[in-house]
């Protein structure tokens, strides 16, 4: 395989970032796009030089020849469309999360495994140079033993897409997922979670109309990574303003490090230099990393025959952490996390 042929479903705003990035890939060709609004699919195909456009995923699976299904649809549609693609023999790269329940996510991962296919889920935060640098600091004990970490990411909430505020939406699935992926990637799989979560703003104006929100828009999540290593994620759709220059902090027995920027758009790593008694900014170059680069990355891995750092097991683990957090918040209990994953060395 010299190039991976991609069929994309969901020609909304997210696809508008993926398609231009994929156009610059030496390992991928987008050969078909699909959207429930055929006019939008046709516009996207024309704008990005894609040969085929469809208004139905089943029609695209039947009518276009491709290797990788790229799912950039709304969250509530992820499970069904991923299942259709895997059943049709396609590898799948899905925007976060891969499903909205752990049981559905587990079934998808198992289907991929038994079918000899790959299932990957965004976010791709484990691919950034800043993630790699933090991983080296933490695992190399440059900060001593890192026992605590804090992360925060929120905004005022989307003004489009009513599903963001429905039962399968929410700030944890949409925003907190980035921090959960980064923290479990750096500190190890979660063993248990405790959370506070709820709907602070019950009515929202979305797409010019008022709706009643039921999804979480304010969540505090504590993660137990084992061996007395704890992390904290704060996320929500109630953040009119937030400092984004230092969004994550890792605290060790002999030092500390801050991630500058957000984990989906990192700007560097700030490390406490014990010798000088000052903060030192390092690893400022993203080297081409961007949040929409995951599909191009897995295409490159498929062509080169190397194992990607991103895995379906990690995406599933993150999904279990988030769904367990919802149960914890609803019932006021600590929830165990049973799934696990292994993070390999950087590839491709």
Explain this structure.
With 348 residues, the chain is of the alpha/beta class. It folds into 2 domains: 4-121, Rossmann fold (3-Layer(aba) Sandwich), CATH 3.40.50.720; 125-290 and 308-336, Dihydrodipicolinate Reductase, domain 2 (2-Layer Sandwich). It has 9 helices and 17 strands. A 9-stranded mixed beta sheet has the order 16-15-14-13-7-12-11-8-17. A 6-stranded parallel beta sheet has the order 3-2-1-4-5-6, with helices on both faces. Strands 9-10 form a two-stranded antiparallel ribbon. β15 (265-273) and β16 (278-282) form a beta hairpin. The longest helix has 20 residues, at 312-331. The protein is globular, with a radius of gyration of 20 Å.
Task: Produce a short descriptive summary.
This protein has helices spanning 15-23, 38-48, 57-63, 78-87, 102-115, 129-139, 171-187, 294-304, 312-331, and strands spanning 4-9, 28-34, 52-54, 68-71, 91-94, 119-121, 146-154, 192-198, 203-206, 209-212, 218-224, 230-236, 246-252, 256-262, 265-273, 278-282, 335-336.
List the helices and strands and how they pair.
Blueprint: E1 4-9, H1 15-23, E2 28-34, H2 38-48, E3 52-54, H3 57-63, E4 68-71, H4 78-87, E5 91-94, H5 102-115, E6 119-121, H6 129-139, E7 146-154, H7 171-187, E8 192-198, E9 203-206, E10 209-212, E11 218-224, E12 230-236, E13 246-252, E14 256-262, E15 265-273, E16 278-282, H8 294-304, H9 312-331, E17 335-336
Parallel strand pairs: 1-2, 1-4, 2-3, 4-5, 5-6, 7-12
Antiparallel strand pairs: 7-13, 8-11, 8-17, 9-10, 11-12, 13-14, 14-15, 15-16
